[in-house]
Amino acid sequence: MSGPEIAAPAEGAVEFGGPIGRPGALHPAAIANPTLLALDSSGAACSVAVWRDGALIAHRAETMTRGHGERLLPMVAETMRAAGLAMAALDAVAVTVGPGSFTGLRIGLAAARGLGLALGRPVAGLTSFLAVAASLPTALRDAREILIALDTRREDLFLQRFDPQLRAIGSAWLATPAEAVADLPAIPWLVAGDGLPLLAPVLPRDRDIARAPGPGHIEAAGFVALAARLLAEGGEGAAGPLLLPEPFYLRAPDVKLPAGLAAP
């Protein structure tokens, strides 16, 4: 496979100050039938997918708690080889912007932005919430409101509600499992995300609450089709907009900048 070689950021590097609020909207020129590379390293997995001619043609995914920086770009190369494409064939790159692991987000965003810069292609962001929601089968979503729960590795959860068409309902928020359940309206729900094991013990048994199968990790193969559709619609659409490739932390990250280094 020909194409640029992009160095992965060191695991200890600080590259983004990042907003606590959601990044701004991205409005790229519409790309009909895009050839798209999607990647994620925001949580306890690392994944890459390639979309071309309206179909997923190659993907890789590995569960991991560390080492995203060492694996992400080799996985990109492996996936592009499996797709039989040169990097220059890509029309755009899509990446999760968070919330998620501070280090993992920086690694994924740095890789996506580096590839976009080297190739002269747009880089589009999606929230981790939308990435999980997009992977849910339509039959599961039908007539249910969706609650995405992401593990913060603390005592609370990152949370976001969606309707069955993947339109966000309100803003994302932080809450303990008990607080999250207490606020749920008495309607049919579908709950998904890697925070589901923390939420499951407190879900009311007398309510119509379905639980998505699987570990709930984000996989690029699950959101690449939605990203391609939004790119074809100029970044808008029912589940849009696409976002600028900037980190979405939802709360201030627990990291300390090296002495003398100011946050960007």
Description:
The protein is of the alpha/beta class. Among the domains are: 36-130 and 218-232, ATPase, nucleotide binding domain (Nucleotidyltransferase, domain 5, 2-Layer Sandwich); 138-211, 2-Layer Sandwich (Nucleotidyltransferase, domain 5). 26% of the residues lie in helices and 23% in strands. It contains 7 helices and 10 strands. The protein has helices at residues 68-83, 102-119, 128-134, 138-141, 177-182, 196-199, 220-232, and strands spanning 36-40, 45-52, 55-63, 92-98, 123-127, 145-151, 157-162, 168-175, 189-192, 209-211. Strands 3-2-1-4-5 form a 5-stranded mixed beta sheet, sandwiched between helices. Strands 8-7-6-9-10 form a 5-stranded mixed beta sheet. α3 packs across α7. The longest helix is centred in the middle third of the chain and has 18 residues, at 102-119. The radius of gyration is 18 Å and the shape is globular. The two termini are 35 Å apart. Residues 1-18 and 260-264 have low confidence and may be disordered.
